[in-house]
UniProtKB/TrEMBL annotation, chains A, B:
Keyword Calcium recorded: no
Domain HTH tetR-type, chain residue ranges per copy: 15-75
Feature: DNA-binding region: 38-57
Annotated protein name in UniProt: TetR/AcrR family transcriptional regulator
Taxonomic path: Bacteria, Bacillati, Actinomycetota, Actinomycetes, Kitasatosporales
Pfam families reported in the protein's UniProt record: TetR_C_24 (PF17932), TetR_N (PF00440)
Originating species: Kitasatospora terrestris
Keywords from the named record: DNA-binding
UniProt superkingdom: Bacteria
PROSITE patterns: HTH_TETR_2
């Protein structure tokens, strides 16, 4: 994961030690999976003792929850910014897909963990993350619905179309690697074009 | 996982005991993840002793490899059948997307394991599965390329378009559940429509 992506995920509010632990947790979970990772693995990777880890996080599940919550919150922010940034559904959707795609390409390591280990979250954290996911999906649905009303989009089924839009972006985290031939920005632009077509936008 | 999906994945050639072990491995990996699952867990779930398991598979990695290989082979078969089933690219692509989507919705448990644990495969098995994935992707690219030549499709970038088609289908395994509102067949039909639009097919 690049330094930039890390800074994007855990801006100012966290202490340096907490950010180091989150980064170590991401690396450990990515390498071994959540279940096979111990708090000792994470502490060691962060250059700390397990006791020092517990000052910041009570468990490895708490680290996973923090990674998952901040990742989803940042994604929701990005999606809401795309909606707020204009009142023309085609432009809103293009920005949304470009940014959503870029985000999942750049943050593919975190994205993979967050998506693969969702069911390892403690119940309350799972519910919090599920609520963020619903708000992301609803924002996408809202933009499509307004586009349909305005005659800019034409879709056979609103929910399936919204699902396809988010699915395409989320799955970038699964397949994208730093060796992929397109940059995150270029992929975002191409996906923007494909999604607008999928929604029946007039060229 | 439904009985039907299991029978589709491991037809005739496997012994009943081997199929029971594969099914137990799928359940265990889905529940705990590959790394945290022991061969004892799998043997117990299959109602066997660990010693009996080793008669069929030398390790849990061998079970994962078999699940992954058979899953990818079945997916490739389906994609190649769609190509062979007609010579009109629009019809080939519609069938391909319908079947590919249906397959990932029905087999979402296996699909999730296969996609999440790809990097847990021993090197040789990873290479075999990667080769199957490339053939799947190439089949999709071939159909799109023929459609572009025939003037039936119009895409800005062939590789990105093919990637989007497979990505959309593969990601169904991540989000689809038995409680999803659309049946696998209905989702397949809807995705068929969305993908043909994405490829610029004339309505």
């Amino acid at each position: 994961m690049s330094e930039q992506a890390t800074a994007d995920l855990w801006p100012g509010e966290s202490t340096e030690a907490a950010r180091r632990l989150l980064l170590a947790a991401v690396d450990s979970f990515a390498r071994r999976g959540f279940h096979a990772t111990t708090t000792r693995d994470i502490a060691t990777a962060a250059g700390m003792s397990p006791a020092a880890l517990y000052i910041h996080y009570p468990s490895k599940a708490a680290l996973l929850a923090e990674i998952s919550r901040t990742g989803h919150q940042a994604t929701l922010d990005l999606v809401e910014r795309a909606e707020a940034g204009g009142d023309e559904p085609v432009a809103q959707m293009r920005t949304l897909v470009e940014e959503f795609t870029r985000w999942h390409a750049r943050g593919h390591t975190v994205g993979r963990i967050v998506n693969n280990e969702l069911h390892a979250l403690p119940e309350e954290d799972f519910a919090a993350v599920a609520a963020l996911r619903i708000r992301i999906e609803e924002t996408v649905q809202r933009i499509i619905a307004r586009g349909v009303e305005a005659g800019a989009f034409e879709v056979p089924d609103l929910r399936t179309a919204a699902r396809a839009v988010t699915s395409l972006g989320v799955d970038v985290a699964r397949w994208y690697t730093d060796r992929s031939s397109e940059s995150p920005e270029e992929l975002g632009r191409r996906y923007g074009v494909l999604v607008l077509r999928m929604l029946g936008a007039k060229a």
